[in-house]
Specification:
By secondary structure, the protein is α/β, with parallel strands linked by helices. Helices cover 45% and strands 15% of the residues. Helix 1 crosses helix 7. It binds uridine-diphosphate-N-acetylglucosamine and uridine-5'-diphosphate.
């Protein structure tokens, strides 16, 4: 009998990281794959579904403008009731740390359906940062029976909370996705990106959207970015701006109208990965970009006070820049001026995966259900 596995996701990064897993489940005879999207994000989710040709079986379509944490969680939870009632999967898979992740896991728990947590064990140990993600992933850690950790250090984090059963170190599925998107001869469909002079100019790829950066930290970060564009004539900033109205307003206010700051619409993931592969370096508060950029040999300045992804910092390809204007400016200026400092950070490392995370996750599930004799080999960086 095939194992009925329901993947639940709702935002852009979850979709990018779950898409290769959905594909893997669909491909294998041991599984019946069911896909439920909450659509906590609408346009940014649909873009990923299109690229990976995924047609969800269920779509809760919950997104509303300026949604609050409570509305997302309650709409997901209520919507999932009907879906789980009808579908009755053997296992639910959720990803990461969003409100969809938490509500999806909780909904499955109410139906006493086992939960597998993909991208398990990331921690900052600060309950308010990132907010609300740190609490979401801790709570899902308690609910889940299967924990798919990207790295060995993620497993150690779970052990510190007493979670030692059903834990697998698999690598991060985002590296699986990256293997399918980046091409040397890629031509952008966004024409303005083809006009960028990647050889002659220093193209900095920027993203910034986190809730805990709303307000003062975001103002500091964006002021530093504008100063960089003012002071370094060879620099062009490319910033695909998240659709959150809070972020849109801040970006227009602090970065708008500058000839070398390109505020553009969110890019589809293929465009984004190929832009990252060609840029000079990345400045971001995003989780996913911290994992992708090192794999592509691009230095990352992390626009946050802490990170749950210390592996790239240890490997020397990422640095925690914080959210103070002067510190952000100084670290970026150093990368622009000091070739040695740049070279020290610009080497490709893969602390987050080897492109086989989805196969390991599928193998681990099959093993748990008695359809495979051995557990998968662990990912080792
Ligand atoms: C959410 C996640 C965050 C993740 C981020 C990825 C939570 C609490 N936060 O934050 O962990 O890092 O997604 O991007 O789960 N919007 C659109 N169209 C879209 C997407 C968003 O218009 O396709 C607008 C809507 O007005 C929405 C707002 O953006 O209300 C914020 O979206 P929301 O999912 O609440 O928060 P994010 O900041 O995206
Ligand atoms: N991304 C994208 N288009 C964009 C910006 C980001 O496809 O315009 C991708 C990025 O490459 C990464 C993921 O979206 O795979 C990260 O999502 P986001 O920064 O929204 O969320 P986080 O990772 O911080 O949760």
């Amino acid at each position: 009998m095939s194992i009925r596995v329901m993947t639940i996701f709702g935002t852009r990064p979850e979709a990018i990281k779950m898409a290769p897993l959905v594909r893997e489940l669909e491909r294998r005879a041991e599984f019946e794959s069911l896909c439920c999207v909450t659509a906590q994000h609408r346009q940014m989710l649909d873009s990923v579904l299109d690229i990976f040709h995924i047609a969800p079986d269920y779509d809760l379509n919950i997104m509303e403008p300026r949604q609050t944490l409570s509305t997302i969680t309650s709409k997901c939870l209520l919507g999932m009731e009907d879906v789980l009632d009808r579908a009755r999967p053997d296992l639910v898979l959720v990803h990461g740390d969003t409100s969809t992740t938490f509500a999806g896991a909780l909904a499955a728990f109410y139906y006493q359906i086992p939960v597998g947590h993909v991208e398990a064990g990331l921690r900052t140990w600060d309950r308010y940062s990132p907010f609300p993600e740190e609490m979401n992933r801790r709570l899902v850690g308690d609910i889940a029976q299967l924990h798919f950790c990207p790295t060995a250090s993620n497993r150690s984090n779970l052990a510190r909370e007493g979670i030692t059963e059903g834990v697998f170190v698999t690598g991060n599925t985002v590296i699986d996705a990256l293997r399918t998107t980046v091409r040397k001869d890629y031509r952008f469909t966004t024409e303005s990106l083809n006009d960028l002079d990647f050889a002659g100019r220093k193209i900095i790829l920027v993203t910034c959207h986190r809730r805990e950066n709303y307000g003062e930290p975001m103002t500091h970060i964006m002021t530093a970015l504008r100063r960089l564009a003012d002071d370094f004539a060879e620099v062009e900033l490319v910033y695909p701006v998240h659709l959150s109205p809070v972020v849109q307003e801040a970006a227009k206010t602090y970065l708008g109208g500058h000839p070398r700051i390109h505020l553009i619409a969110p890019l589809d993931v293929v465009e984004m990965h190929n832009l990252m592969a060609r840029c000079c370096f990345v400045m971001t508060d995003s989780g996913g970009l911290q994992e992708e950029a090192p794999a592509l040999g691009k230095p990352v300045l992390v626009l946050r006070r802490e990170t749950e992804r210390p592996e790239a910092v240890s490997a020397g390809t990422a640095r925690l820049a914080g959210t103070e204007e002067e510190a952000v400016y100084r670290l970026a200026a150093q990368l622009l001026q000091d070739e040695g400092a740049y070279a020290a950070m610009a080497h490709a490392v893969n602390p987050y995966g080897d492109g086989r995370a989805c196969a390991r996750i599928a193998d681990a599930i099959a093993w748990q259900w008695g359809q495979r004799e051995t557990a998968p080999e662990e990912f080792m960086a």
